[in-house]
Amino acid sequence: MIAAPRSPRRSRHLPAEGDGPQDPAQSLVDGDLARALFAVELATTSPEGSWDEVTDSLLAATRTRADRSARASLFYGAPAAGFVLDTTGAYRTRWAHQLASLDQDLVAVTMDRLAAVEARVEAGASPKDSEFNLVNGMSGLGFVLLRRVVHQPARNEDLERALAGVLTYLVDRAQDRVLGEVLLPGWWTPDRHHTTAPGAPVGVTGHADFGMALGGAGILALLAASYRAGRHVVGHGEAIDKIVGWYARWRQETPERVVWWPNRLSLEELRTGHVAPIGRDEPSPLDPTWAHGTPGIGRALQMAAIARKDQQARLAAENAIASCLIQSQLGPMNEPDLYGGTGGMYLTVLRAAEDAERFHPLSDSRIPPLLHRLSVAGSAVSRTSRVLPDPDDSEFLYGRFGTRLVFESLRRRASPVCGGDGVLGIGWAE
Predict the structure, then answer these.
(1) What's the pLDDT at 289?
(2) b or e along 101-135 (b: 16 or more beta carbons within 10 Å of the residue's beta carbon)?
(3) Spatial contact of 410 and 378, defined as CB atoms under 8 Å apart
(4) Contact 185, 239 (CB under 8 A)
(5) 3-state DSSP call for residue 16?
(6) Average pLDDT of the residues in 325-346
């Protein structure tokens, strides 16, 4: 068995568009918003929590005007602040004024992004993946918009119009492209890292990222969540099916029957239809992470199957997730964080398992193995989390607050009540 390669190197900070430094207080990666999100969960689920602490954290996070510049995203600025305040549930009325202001900012950020897309198209330029991905692109904005639309006590036409614009844009991103003679996924982006494929214009190279954090799975998850919530745009269902078709085409399986997908497909791989070997080794799975691996991709496919009421596809997605929860895959993972460690893997598998149980009763002997292997994932989190980050570490994606969110889920054997894991694109807007 060829050893699985390590997951792609992770930056401790997510890339941001625009100029100038970010305000740490407005970061959901590392800042007051991260502290506030965990405070909400603790106040909801544990006697150790306090709504007074939630209030203090949220006041600290919203003490300055939320950033609505090109830097704003699911993890930073006005959209991130809106997401966190939205998780307060029944206490949203306490923050109604702030949420109303953040909703206006969210709409402004979204409309600016859509205008930038129109300008890019008119200029004949190709998109960057930051235009559409989950962590800092349109998919992330869409998840915040969807939650805010669903949780409004009365209809907000501005939010609905912004959400429809994002969904329409992502439906277009799902449409196949052709470069030279090569058929490409709609979210393919140009870069300079791969050899030009025969038949493609000279000097043009690129990739299609298949992960949840930066690629097609994030698009698919949002389209599925909004479709199930009844927020449809023209071509919505067909776009879901189109993306699912690409994942069906590039599904891989190891001798141990571990299902996996490539992290990125180059132009040459798309041309030949084969995943390129790594050096002299045969292609093999990445770590089973939320960001790039089978759990995140499998969860997006499960969400798509539930939204489209395709039971066979749902079982296939759940079995794919279950297939990677074995020692040979979990053993090399030695970090507990959400982005590329066992923490994100656990939260993703837990969400998928809850839906597997909901749509496949426990009395049914055909219940997918995903549920039986959930304890294995939980053990992996417990093992890797014995070495906790520094107590002063406020990071959410890579540090203490994200890990503690996982601890709370482990303790209750249930996904976060506040829906904080929805920032990973793995939850419904309910």
Answers:
(1) 94
(2) bbbbbbbebbeebbeebeeeeeeeeebebbbbbbb
(3) yes
(4) no
(5) coil
(6) 87
